[in-house]
Amino acid sequence: MRRLIALLCLVIIGLSVWQLEADRAGLTITPLPVEGGTPATLFLRDGAGTAPVVVIAHGFAGSRQLMEPFALTLAQAGYVVASFDFEGHGRNPRPMSGDVSTIDGTTRLLMEETARVARAALAHPRADGRLAYLGHSMASDVVVRQSLDSPPGDAVIAISMFSEAVSADAPPNLLVIAGEWETMLAEEAIKALRLADPQANPGEVVGDPAHGTGRRAVIAPMVEHVGVLYSATALNAARDWLDASFGRDSAGPVAQRGGWIAALLLATVGLAWPLARWLPAGTGPALPPLSAGRVLVAALAPALSVPLALAPFEIRVLPVLVADYLVLHLGLYGLMTLALLWYWGQLHGQFPKRIWWIAAAVAIFGIAVLGGAIDRYVASFLPHAGRMVIIAGLALGAMPFLLADGILTEGGKARLWRVVLVRVAFLGSLGLAVALNFSALFFLLIILPVIVLFFLLFGTMSGWVGRRTGLPAAGGLGLGLVLAWALGVTFPMFDAAAF
Fold first, then answer.
1. Cα 264 to Cα 6, 173, 289, 364, distances in angstroms
2. CATH topology classification for 24-256
3. pLDDT digits over 225-261, tens only?
4. Where are the domains of the chain?
């Protein structure tokens, strides 16, 4: 059975990679040198003539990879496409800086970086001098404002937009796209449309894109803040808007990558099951069972006490927003849980010699195999050297936390109510921390979906390892490194002196 499942997963992985790589067929994709060293990528269709430049900017905690559906679609349509990593994001080693509370602070610095990328792309021999900006979420405000600066944009596509810089007639040729399930931002899209025409409805075109007066709002069905980037509705609307703005009639495939990316990641996770079955089998130590009352104490005591204990303190050492707090929260949470488990005799026999190489195998699979697929097709996962210190710091908290989580949930053997209780209690603990200090910790809210996804994907794999080897601590230790890595490469780097 395990050989059959392994073969099936490998077939799905191979087919998914083949389909995803096919989106790049006929394109030349090369680094774009940019003043100041901003990492940028240039996408050109082979054999195409001169064309307008489209500068693509990602949102907060994003990277170039996340915007590839638009980059590939517009490049296949013949546009000269430049995508880049903002400072503090992806492969960009320079941290974000400036005052985040003012337009002339961090926003101005991001605008200047966008302008440098635009100038570099406009200098390419294939550029015909016309320019469009496309930005998602945080970058929607950046590209709206930059289009009114220098170099100015002839068209703007703002995805999941919130910007106070939009007026009845600026920026020129504005297309606003939002997902149906991001309700507030969908309302903002309609609001921007009705600044130009109070009677207009989503999907209608106001003004004339050929004369620089066009405006349109598109609501992509059944998608949210990230799913909108993979929506065929959004991709087609972006290409059609640029064609209308620049008087072009483009052809070429639309990079509908979401389904294949999901298949790739699920098959890669699925591959972990037969690999876990090849690990040496074990039954684990004979331990006294934990009563429901003790499980409740172990789940809720740290969930309530850790955010209350840390609320008075504010520490900034690591150059990543809220990373210092996360290290302390994860580490103290894990140590308190481990102390209770030790007191109840649950740590005896949990650390035989073989645990270390099994934990290393879990970490390697999560970081190199699954992480490699994520880095190629989803978002930046391979760090530059400056992030290694951040990953090491996060590991000091993540490893004891997930070690305790693995033992408390018995490496996947515990009943479902127990697993759900343990994980929900931790998520609630982070929520309580935010409530106690919203101004300093509201960025933790962005982590919550990441943690949920982590538990679903990596927690499932850890359960397979724990049930096979009888060593729940092995999966916990390995996943601690994976979680530290995932958080360390995802969150933007900030210049601590700026805050």
1. 13, 37, 39, 18
2. Rossmann fold (3.40.50)
3. 999 999 999 999 999 999 999 999 998 899 999 999 9
4. 24-256, 279-498
